[in-house]
Amino acid sequence: MSVLRRSFASVIENKLLIKDKWVSSKASKWFDVKDPATQEVVARVPQCTQSEFDQAVSSAKETFKTWRNVPVLTRLRYMRKYLDLLNANLENLAGIITRENGKVLADSRGDVIRGIEVVEHTLSFGSLLQGESMENLAKDLDTYSYRHPLGVCAGITPFNFPAMIPLWMYPVAAACGNTYVLKPSEKVATTCEKMGELFLEAGFPHGVLNIVHGGKDTVDMICKHPDIKAISFVGGNDAGTYIHQQGSHYGKRVQSNMGAKNHVIVLPDADKEDAINALVSSVFGATGQRCMALSVIVLVGETKSWIPDLVAKSKTLKVGPGNDPKTDVGPLNAAGLKERVESLIASGVSEGAKLLLDGRGVKVNGFEKGNFVGPTIFADVNVNQKIYKEEIFGPVMTIMTVDTLEEAIELINRNPNGNGTSIFTSSGSSARKFQREIEAGQVGINVPIPVPLPMFSFTGNKGSFRGDLNFYGKGAINFFTQWKTITSRWKEENSEKYKLSTAFPTMK
Q1: Is residue 291 annotated as a catalytic residue, yes or no?
Q2: CA–CA distance, 194 with 214 (Å, rounded to integer)
Q3: DSSP output for 84-153
Q4: Which helix (H) or strand (E) holds 459?
Q5: Could you give the 3-state DSSP secondary structure of residue 303?
Q6: Please, what's the b/e burial string for 209-246 (b: 16 or more CB within 10 A of its CB; e: otherwise)?
Q7: Which residues of 396-410 are buried (b: 16+ CB within 10 A; e: fewer)?
Q8: Under a CB-based contact definition with an 8 Å cutoff, are residues 226 and 252 in contact?
Q9: In this structure, are residues 20 and 208 in contact, taking their beta carbons and an 8 Å threshold?
């Protein structure tokens, strides 16, 4: 047997975390989790029952009564222990991600590290959770505001970042004084189970974090349960729109980060080698399964002559299993995703785009059943083609050409999505014009994946985001807290009596 072939002695049965117990579900429906490189079943995820879900919410609700009163600094000491445990278990978590998601180990490590950075940032919440005050607004009158936690919050996470995106959610909510019910993607649930074990090991009170499993049935339970006050979601457009509408209908706060179609502009004055490396990395990293991948390359003017270089660089990437350190492009997460990507490639050919590199039909020795699609490149793409209109979520680069920066900006701004965009240039004035005029929420200048660090917020907009308050950073503080403003009047001793008046009080 090849040293790269993975074999597991037993299939993991993912459990529910309800208060302090890992519970075997009484589910009648289960989801098989398959190793994307081999199709071996490595885990089974239950569709939790309504009763099990209600118990998890009840646990969170009961714990909230005491957790909300735990001092902020005490909460952050728990978070410090959790941070240490996540760092100590980085390699273990990365291995679980590669097994279930399929991404290469280096990218799996990045997944965990970027999540750890959010946990690290929660340690600064002692200042970010401060309120506001002003005295002597009027005679004997003071006003002050506090940030209070919401209560029970819930998160619904996608398959493509099994560690990072959950870590955007429950640690931030808990640091703000909330309790949490987390539903991981049923395609990659074991990562969250391991992170839940570490959460308990860090000493957090039982019930601060609860983990439930399932598909749409569990999503509906989250949207409808009256004790859940807020929902965080990252995933596709259809699910994100549905969750935002349903959650809002049932009176909950919702932040829903959805699909994308990210463009990158390349100007002739860009550093050619740096730009080409960045573009290839952005498009084909994580096998294109990133909502921030720069999948649409907009070449301006003479940079269209760089197309052969983009193709040549992409051909150097090795396709293979994620646990091979030589692999650049791992398998797609599921067989259905492979079929969808290959179908979209076929549509690009039939609709007239020029296929310069075809990644269909890739075979990897020892992993013939893997969900592999190699780097694929189209030129002569236009806005009416399906490969432009849909988020492919696979290793497919689509190239468009325009004559000027103004045309490129107009092209991007016409797209209904607004998750992220970048420009490669050596001109400060061109970069400034781009950053001021572009409508996407996250902007990179000579940066291929413009995901902000956690002291800033993840600020996708337009069709890529529903809700008003963003993930992590100050936006998350606002999302996971509510203001309480107190106006207080204390009359000085022996002062004159107040006169009766039925007029609306003013501050004169």
Answers
A1: yes
A2: 17
A3: HHHHHTHHHHHHHHHHHH---HHHHHHHHHHHHHHHHHHTTHHHHT--EEEEEEETTEEEEEEEEE-SEE
A4: none
A5: helix
A6: bbbbbbeeebbbbbbebeebbbbbbbbebebbebbbeb
A7: bbbbbbbeebeebbe
A8: no
A9: no
> How far from 377 is each of 5, 272, 327, 394, CA to CA, in Å?
29, 18, 19, 11
- pLDDT, tens digit only, all 508 positions of the chain: 233 333 445 899 999 999 999 999 999 999 999 999 999 999 999 999 999 999 999 999 999 999 999 999 999 999 999 999 999 999 999 999 999 999 999 999 999 999 999 999 999 999 999 999 988 888 888 999 999 999 999 999 999 999 999 999 999 999 999 999 999 999 999 999 999 999 999 999 999 999 999 999 999 999 999 999 999 999 999 999 999 999 999 999 999 999 999 999 999 999 999 999 999 999 999 999 999 999 999 999 999 999 999 999 999 999 999 999 999 999 999 999 999 999 999 999 999 999 999 999 999 999 999 999 999 999 999 999 999 999 999 999 999 999 999 999 999 999 999 999 999 999 999 999 999 999 999 999 999 999 999 999 999 999 999 998 999 999 999 999 999 999 998 888 776 777 787 888 776 6
> Please, what is the angle between helix 72-88 and helix 164-175, to 10°?
160
All residues at 6 or more sequence positions from 367 whose CB lies less than 8 Å from its CB, including other chains? 5, 37, 38, 320, 321, 331
The neighbour count for residue 131, using CB atoms within 10 Å, is 14
- Yes or no: say if 212 and 53 are a contact pair by the CB < 8 Å rule: yes
CA dihedral angle for residue 15, residue 16, residue 17, residue 21, rounded to 10 degrees: -70
CA-based end-to-end distance of the chain: 85
The pair of structure tokens assigned to 426 is: 């050596």
Positions of E strands within 184-262: 209-211, 228-234, 253-257
Strand order in the sheet with 152-156: 21-23, 16-18, 209-211, 179-183, 152-156, 228-234, 253-257, 465-466
Q: Which of 153, 192, 223, 291 is catalytic?
A: 291
